[in-house]
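From the pipeline queue, job 12 of 40. The input is one protein chain; the requested action is below.

Action: predict structure.
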Amino acid sequence: MPNWFSSKSDWMKFFSLFFLLFLGIGVQQKHFVQYNTADVKVVRSGNVIKVTLPFTISEGYHIQDASNTSDNVLPTKISFEDEAKYQIRDYIYSQVDYDTVVLDKLSHKVMSNELKVTVTINLKEGVSMGQTTLKGELFYQACDHMRCFFPRTLAFNVPLK
């Protein structure tokens, strides 16, 4: 059996590494996009609900477009949890502040400042609005003028009242 910890310094290295790994597990990633709960709009017409989800992109950063991206860029995606009480009919990026960024002589669209996504939901028969919540995630990759960061996932939920 090998003796991996033959000296006091080997033990110290091991515990230092373990401690650093332990600290890293609890650290939250910085988000470059904020979900603005107070500005959510919910409008109902019969069994159809339109929800507008507002997001703010931090100043000095942009996120990749949801479409029209090159092969080496991760597009922004929004997804929703399946729910037995409603069906997602569609969603659109209803308000986007676009910029153009040039990388290696190739230009592509990015989103900055504000982003709004409007989701259309069909509520199932017999379900009232106060009985359910729209839950989802915004997947994005943020960049500044010098570098891009690891992708992030921002969870959100909207009580349908």
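Job complete. The CA atoms of residues 62 and 160 lie 30 Å apart.
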